[in-house]
Specification:
Low-confidence stretches: none
CATH topology of the largest domain: Rossmann fold
Number of domains: 2
Number of helices: 10
Order of helices and strands: EHEHHEHEEEHEHEHEEEEEEHHEH
Oligomer: single chain
Largest sheet: 5 strands, parallel
Strand content: 15-25%
Shape: elongated
């Protein structure tokens, strides 16, 4: 049960991924006037990418329920808005929540311009065919999910990871469907190695690539000849708006950790001239899973 706030406030949430949707839902439950600004024409953020895997389509329920709750609470959700500072301040907010998510990051390697990201494949912008090498430098569901999709598509897939096991951040029970897919498609799995360089294949047909792989623990290197290199290197926080808003905020974007853990209202003041409180949550802080993003929002907003 989320208690109604003693004083109704104007809350602006930037981003309608899982963290932003939960923040808006909880703020609405608290009785605040809530406006959500979302850059895309729809809500969901990275969940929409994850749900492109047919086996994981039920993840959309996380989004659909929260969107319905926002409708029930008459939250003003504005799509196709790439929010800038002026868009936020024009709403005269008391509280601003930045939930702008993250962007895929590519590990440092020679020839990085030859790769595509797991997000490109999950989003349908790229359909790898032929010989495909997936460099998983993250070990989470995003890499495993795109690997499953590539393997099931009929491409010849090799997964390369510097970790001692595949999908090191994926829970044991979730490994089963991935392992089944890789077994049934003869996917090659190479552990304890990473991609060091990617170059055009001088002896192959146009577009083919030479991929140099090896271990962090040895100078030995091997070469793979492939059509496409897909990389999953995690995601980097997209926090530009948060940093631009910090000087205008009363708390300078800081969180009173003691109050957060104690379930108390955030009352930190570092800038008496600040116009609003500012917080960031979810992947706008650091790459995390759906559960952590939702909890980020709930833990903070239940006391705002």
């Amino acid at each position: 049960m989320i208690a109604t706030a003693m004083i109704a406030r104007r809350v602006v949430v930037v981003g309608a991924g899982p963290a932003g949707l939960e923040a808006a839902r909880v703020a609405g439950e608290r009785g605040h006037t809530v406006t959500v600004l979302e850059a895309m024409p729809w809500a969901g953020g990275q969940i929409r990418l994850a749900a492109r895997n047919p086996r994981r389509r039920d993840l959309m329920g996380i989004v659909e329920w929260r969107v319905a709750e926002l409708d029930r609470r008459h939250v003003d959700v504005r799509y196709d808005v790439i929010a800038e500072v002026s868009d936020v301040t024009a709403l005269d907010p008391d509280v601003v929540i930045v939930a702008t998510g993250a962007q895929p990051q590519i590990p440092e390697l020679v020839g990085a311009h030859h790769v595509v990201t797991s997000w490109d494949v999950l989003g349908g912008d790229v359909t790898p065919v032929g010989d495909v090498l997936l460099f998983d430098d993250n070990g989470t569901h995003s890499a495993m999910s795109v690997a499953e999709m590539i393997a099931r598509s009929g491409a010849r897939l090799e997964i390369v990871t510097p970790e001692r096991m595949l999908g090191i951040e994926v829970g044991g029970m979730n490994h089963v469907p991935y392992a089944r897919a890789f077994n049934e498609t003869d996917t090659r799995i190479t552990l304890n190695q990473r991609v060091f360089a990617i170059r055009p294949d001088p002896k192959g047909k146009k577009g083919r690539l030479c991929v140099e792989i090896g271990s962090d623990h040895s100078t030995h290197r091997s070469v793979r000849h492939v059509d496409t290199v897909v990389v999953d290197g995690g995601a980097a926080a997209q926090d530009t708006l948060y940093r631009e808003l910090k000087p205008l905020s009363s708390n300078l974007g800081a969180v009173d950790v003691g109050a957060l853990l104690g379930g108390r209202t955030q009352s930190l003041v570092k800038n008496p001239d600040g116009r609003f409180q500012l917080f960031r949550i979810g992947d706008a802080v650091a790459n995390r899973n759906i559960h952590a993003a939702v909890y980020d929002a709930l833990r903070l907003l239940k006391d705002v």
